[in-house]
Specification:
The chain has 300 residues and is α+β, with helices and mostly antiparallel strands. Helices cover 19% and strands 37% of the residues.
Length: 300
Amino acid sequence: MSRKRSGRPINGWLVLDKPAGLSSARALARVLALTGAAKGGHGGTLDPLATGVLPIALGEATKTVGYVLGGVKRYCFTVLFGEARDTDDAAGTVTAISAVRPDPAAVAAALAGFVGTLEQRPPVFAAIKLHGERAYRIARGGGDPALRPRPVRLDQAELLAMPAPDRAEIAIACGKGFYVRALARDLAQVLGTVGHVADLRRLSSGPFTLDQAISLERLEALGHSPALAEHLMPVATALDDIPALPLSDAAARRLAQGQVVQVQGITDGPARAVHAGRLVALARVEGGQARPVRVFNLEG
């Protein structure tokens, strides 16, 4: 999601530690208002209940959002066993209860069974569009979005602790499109009970981590001061996994104008085209030619 408005031309990534109770769209709007940035977007929705890493792309960084969406995400969360909720998290209405409380060994064993590629049915209260309408809007109106299972990837899953018989603290690493709420729902079902996410915190998203994050309160204190720049990360941060393609002065000018340039010594595929330490374009290399995919208008 991105927004454009009148404001300052700020380019780069800001890692927000999103507070609970705020949607990702509202968090983005707050960041734009506090920084005065003219354009922004976020790199992957966090539910209002969730806290933690919400990468905010400002200015030219919005052209790289797609590369963050596809990155690995890490979460820690608590599953509350014994209550199913319509939203699959603590914000919803209770729809079923169960007296079954699984022991830690059973939880750990069941959790391991989800690691890998699996077919996951998204929660009905999801931002997925059906015939142009968000699933959560259909659900709020009393309808059934009838979302189909889809392939997702769970790379790692670990039971950290069970501080109470009805609570399991879990850490995971997952791929694009994975719903933690759906995992909590399905895990409870495998264990012969019901459950939902009681709390959720994103620890990282692609190259962005919690130790880089800034709170809204801190951002408000900084305002438009020069100190804000200390928290901005380069536009190219989202492209760190893509090979760099150094350019000559002439090649940089041609690529920036949308022209194809001849290159050597780089494998076919995407490339970060750079000149004098500045990101010029995201290019596609094929047969010794680099073709610009996205051109960046950055000073320096």
